[in-house]
Design brief:
The chain is mainly β. Helices cover 0% and strands 34% of the residues. The protein is built from no helices and twelve strands.
Length: 164
């Protein structure tokens, strides 16, 4: 279950493809000091593990990892269109090249998403990224960087004033 410091109000519209909100963060107040379940029934689903959430700089897109017990994680996304969030869908950035994707991170410039991808047995775990096009994302690209192998590709620290 994904925990975040937000209220847990569930808002649904009559339209099954979108969720109604009155504000950002799925209609919840922004994170505070006390962690609470985030977007119960929308992002946080009973029987599933959610982790690694990242909002776009304008707070109109959200990307997060989720998986059920004994399953590999996937990255899901939702977009704020008008005052409605779309239902979360799988991103599938590696288009099946990797069994699992997790820990998405939207760049501050909003032109890339970094994430971890791995084989079904969690070998060959590396950091990948996709570039934003006007209405889509590029093919996934393995990050060519000096990150140490012992980190196994699970941690990415983004420089505050970086060029990415």
């Amino acid at each position: 279950m994904f925990l975040n410091a937000c209220n847990t109000k569930k808002h649904r519209s009559k339209d099954s493809d979108s969720l109604t909100t009155e504000a950002l963060y799925f209609g919840q107040k922004p994170p505070g000091l006390i962690p609470e379940i985030f977007a119960l029934g929308i992002v946080s689903i009973n029987g599933r593990y959610e982790h690694g959430i990242s909002f776009s700089p304008d707070l109109d897109e959200v990307y997060f990892s989720a998986n059920k017990k004994d399953e590999v994680p996937d990255v899901y996304f939702s977009k704020l269109e008008g005052k409605k969030w779309t239902n979360p869908k799988k991103a599938n950035f590696t288009k099946g090249e990797k069994a699992g994707e997790m820990h998405p991170f939207v760049s501050f410039s909003d032109n890339k998403i970094y994430f971890t991808a791995h084989n079904s047995d969690y070998t060959d775990t590396k950091i990948w990224y996709v570039n934003r096009f006007e209405n889509s994302w590029s093919n996934a690209i393995k990050l060519d960087s000096p990150i140490k192998e012992d980190m196994r590709g699970k941690v990415f620290i983004y420089p505050l004033r970086g060029i990415w």
